[in-house]
Amino acid sequence: xxxxxxxxxxxxxxxxxxxxxxxxxxxxxxxxxxxxxxxxxxxxxxxxxxxxxxxxxxxxxxxxxxxxxxxxxxxxxxxxxxxxxxxxxxxxxxxxxxxxxxxxxxxxxxxxxxxxxxxxxxxxxxxxxxxxxxxxxxxxxxxxxxxxxxxxxxxxxxxxxxxxxxxxxxxxxxxxxxxxxxxxxxxxxxxxxxxxxxxxxxxxxxxxxxxxxxxxxxxxxxxxxxxxxxxxxxxxxxxx
Length: 240
What we know:
The chain is of the alpha/beta class. The protein has seven helices and eight strands. The protein has helices at about 5-10, 25-45, 65-70, 75-90, 130-140, 185-195, 220-240, and strands at about 1-5, 50-55, 100-105, 110, 120, 145, 165-175, 200-205. The strands form two sheets. The chain has a six-stranded parallel beta sheet. It has a two-stranded antiparallel sheet with strand order 4-5.
């Protein structure tokens, strides 16, 4: 089951218009975490073995326009990041299920009017470097789903901060383009990542969902299956 994380919810909330209800942004964020923790508890009781938190908001902390927006509202981005990590940890506190969290920079698409080809779009840029140590070591989620399908994500070097008890799921297969990756290219990139983290701590997936963004043309179903086949073939080749 996938839930949107409290950080993303908080970024979408005009808390200054609700000061008669919440003392500040973190007061609201804590309430969201409390509600979501109860949702997760019920999911686990119902037999759900895996809880996935979608947290695209974290890439705001490496994106200069997003940082400027926070500051313009009188917020401290460093404080926001610390409080958001705490909120995400509260959501899964004591949960007896595998918990993962997904970070990306946007997944929308558009059509090039000149060629009719599908073009990728995004709403943030910035590498993981500036937040990696704090994010990877302080989040309690055991699966880190990381966008790595474009140069906007930067290098694999920040993976050196990932603790030994966590798995990094490399989002190497793009969901924003109909170009199908090759097994050789994916294996090469996994080998590159293995320079900074043990290969047994790595896994492979699409960068995001194939239908996660509203508007724009989706990747055709036959191409989706081809991409998933390449993932399975590559995983079998790399991990057996």
